[in-house]
Design brief:
This protein is mainly α and about 210 residues long. It has seven helices and four strands.
Amino acid sequence: MVEKDLGYCCLCIEIRKGCLLITILNFIVSLFCIVTLFVDDPRLLPQGYNLHTRRLSTYVGCFGLFASLIGLLGVLDGKPGWINAYNYYQYIFLGVTLFAFVSDVISLQNCEAWPFSLESQINFNPALERVASKGLCQYTREAYVCGFLIDWGMRAYFAYVTAWYYYALDAGPSQLIKFSSKFEANLPARYLGEPGQFLGQRDIKSVYGSA
């Protein structure tokens, strides 16, 4: 049996394979987040210019180790509920990283005056101290914003792909019985949807007997 065409990821990858790659990539990133916490190197932190949120996204990223496994198994076994649970993690991660980004941008606005402020003598900020001492405040702001937009946009697209696959899988797509995966006798399901979701859940009992 051949699975119906449910769409594509990145315009060229079948969506199921794309979701598998997304969960595997998230698993690898989560391992890196765990290593970052043990090493405690400011250079490895994805967001670290604000002292209050410098490790926030890293902590949430560590939970992705379990969430990505749930998502991976959900894609492999075709379980929409597990995929949806993984999607919720992605939504939370996007919200947390956006909050940390805004906090970092606010801290970077005071970069030039940081070495001369009283707060720099009380609360040591290694990331901001290094940038201010080298006179790279403006360059750091521009590079940080560009890098975040690329990274956050990519993660948002990944969340969209897995959410789309969840909705397509939750509709109960039928399996096609055919000898060639290239043969398509009907229109793709991603355009028309699946009629099975409108039939409802009914218990059908078979009764055998003779008149």
